[in-house]
Please model this.
Amino acid sequence: MEPRITTSTDRPGITIFDPIEQAQFALYTPTAVDPMTADVDIFPAPVSTAVRINTTGIDVPSLSNIYVRSPTGDLITETSGQTDQSLPRNEYVLELTTAPVKLYLRVESALDIKYREATVRIGFGPHPVAVYVGTRSFHEHPAGTITVPDDPRDVMKAVSLFGSALKDLSPERSFPTLRGHPPLIERGNSFDAPTDIERPETGVSIELPPEYEYVYPATSLAYYLGADVRPANTPRLVTENGFEHVLDGPLGYEENVRRTLQQVFFLDCLTRTEGLYDVDLHERTQVEPLVSLDFEALYDQSLAAQLEAYLSVPISILEPHLPQWSVTMDIVPNPEHVSMLPFAATQLAVIRSPTPDTQEPAPTPDMITEFTRGGESVNKTEVLTRSAHQLQDIAEDEIFTPESTESIRHTWVGEGYPLGANKATTEAYERQLDQGGPEQSSITIHVVCNDEQMESEGVVEEFYGVRELLEFDVTVHYRLDTEELQELLTASADLFHFIGHVDSKGLRCPDGHLDARLLDEVQVKAFVLNACRSYAQGQALVESGSLGGVVTLSEITNNTGTRVGCALAKALNRGFPLQVAVDLVQRVVGGYSYMTIGDGGLTLVQSESGCCYLSELEQAEDGWFVDFTTIPMRTFNMGTLFDPVLGDQSTQYLASGLLNTFSVTDEELENHFAIESHPVIFNDELFWTNEVTVTDLRE
Model:
């Protein structure tokens, strides 16, 4: 299923729709155009769909950085910092960076690129010229499936083949689009791998004791290095040049593997600025004076030689400048979780092998305290909760707090319910790979309110559907009976948002309960069960077909449930991943135990800027300090470049976590608010920039 390019219906131009990722983007033109199918081979990078249009110019509806290249792919110039550019008539290929698909233009013309408040105009002159538009989906499929028996030595052979998915062995593989998805793993009686899946010749090996607790944590590092993983007594990394790097020591094996992965990846990101994307990278500016690395010379050296140079740098020099890691995965080290390894590797996850002594019982949330946080004072008996008095029949000791992590997302693969982490299942990730998407370019959302005392939460409807480039089909249902609710869950939809009561019998309806554990099939892609202790029903929805959802581990009051439901709706509408949306909301609500089940990285829509971001404000005497944080996405993962349009306009950053603290004036902050609606935290309160002004915040 390839992206489609069609004539726009709302204004002159074309619409690019990726049915796999449900991503949509538009390019507008001064007059109507008629896209005609074109040859996909005229672009220097792979595309799967191409059209030709005739126009005098194109308006890009976002502040996209543009890389201008020759027809052979050589970089001519780029526009980071939203710098206007004019180039004489020639043949050019333009790469647009903020589209939710890979998007290129090829044209023979003069170029006049001008940035406006929230758009970019690419002018070709007074007369129409032929413009070729090429695109491909970011979606990645594994090349095949490897079968392994329950033997760590065979798992090592499988992980050794993960590097077959790398599309480049140079430092450019630190870009997420140049790292393919590793082959899948399934359990069987004997080892078997497709013959066309071969390990690349990188000259790098990782030696480990053949035990699950050693093999699992090394998976992402082995994938990124294209390493051969082989049994040995001492865990170490070795190269064909005789270099050796021990992976054990006083800090422990897992910590040393984490540091090695992050160090090599980070220095690859700095070295690659000598290659296809010659940009002013903030992190290189900070680190280059501190190390004796010749990045220009390193770029052309072998992977093994680069590894030796990188690991000669003390990690203490680099750590203050490392991007916050996207994901830490705790995978309980037993055979039944082996199929999760490809999904961990493709995210470059830091992997840990938890043991029972690293888990602590979860504290019980203090409902009455949280309820009165908003200034209301009531007795506990007066608090209306979303339980129906008989809560779920899961023991309290199944809810625990796993060891903390500094990563943006935390995933748990094992038994129990991890407070503060996503409970992942392999089946949810596998379904994500098989997503075909609906034929229509719309997002279908069902909001079900099954308690008339909660109907005020129907306001979540208004928070969907405000994006220009995506059409939302939102339907609100009230007081559905069990049969109607079952029909809704078993029909195809993108999001199911339940507002009501849940107890040990299931989702409460006017005529009884619908127990999700009895459903054979569920077709809603994602869900929010905004009801007390809804985790068991949520897990049942994932086991029956959903990709992931938001549930609660505790009782919640109507007041908090409504606040959380509205805030979640806004975050999901802006493209935040499920787990990040929950973390964002809990930062300001606090106390209550929301968590995600299934694929916590699932998004409902694509963010307009590729990465979601958050601004945390501190008021200054004559302006503001802005802590600007970016959130990696599935298709804009570790290694993505980001221009925050704040501060030095020519600098780009590695997009993951806090980029920098910027000092801005009121006017600059207002302009920042106008670029794209995003969440802002000020004085521990959450705001959205399309609902508040800088003047409002000062008052």
About this structure: The chain is about 20% helix and 30% strand. The CA atoms of residues 577 and 602 lie 5 Å apart. The mean pLDDT is 87.
